[in-house]
Amino acid sequence: MGTLSDTVSVPVLGVFISGRGSNFQAIHRAIQSGVLSARIGLVISDRDADGLVYANANNLPCVVCPRSDFSTQADHDAAMLEQCQRAQVNWIVLAGYMRILSAGFLANYPDKVLNIHPSLLPKFKGLHPQRQALAAGESESGCTVHYVIPEVDSGPIILQHRVPIYDGDTEAQLSARILEEEHKAYVAALKIVLGDDE
Question: Is the peptide bond before 61 cis (omega within 30 degrees of 0)?
């Protein structure tokens, strides 16, 4: 039987989404199956995202915090920070969150904010990295899980998963192949940073 201290020691994740949240769902399934030892304390979105349907269906606390409700980014970030602190979140997981977090927000979670990017960083930062990889004639691409710092897609790398690029690949085909690896990579990276990779 678990003790109270066992419960308290389980890392509490705040998952940020902007879309369907497939990486968020993969992480939740890993927690449910016992592959990952953590708890999702809050799902937060900047819009009425499809991933909130999954959050609600699985009784996960969630909140929508639209940027348009706030006059400045600082106010928006402060509201999200308050929600995370209220939920006792101690790790932030960006899972398809399409906004840049301010240095002020990140300072509250030093080395505790993770992101996944669909390229082999430092190659192809920013938007449409799959399209960038195809345009550059690369033979492979993949995904990178990294710590978040104020400079976009530039934080220390935790791990990368590689995927081949085939002749005739479309952006959609490559994106789908990378996304499949993202679901595995994010869980593996969380196990590393949470000390759960024994």
Answer: no
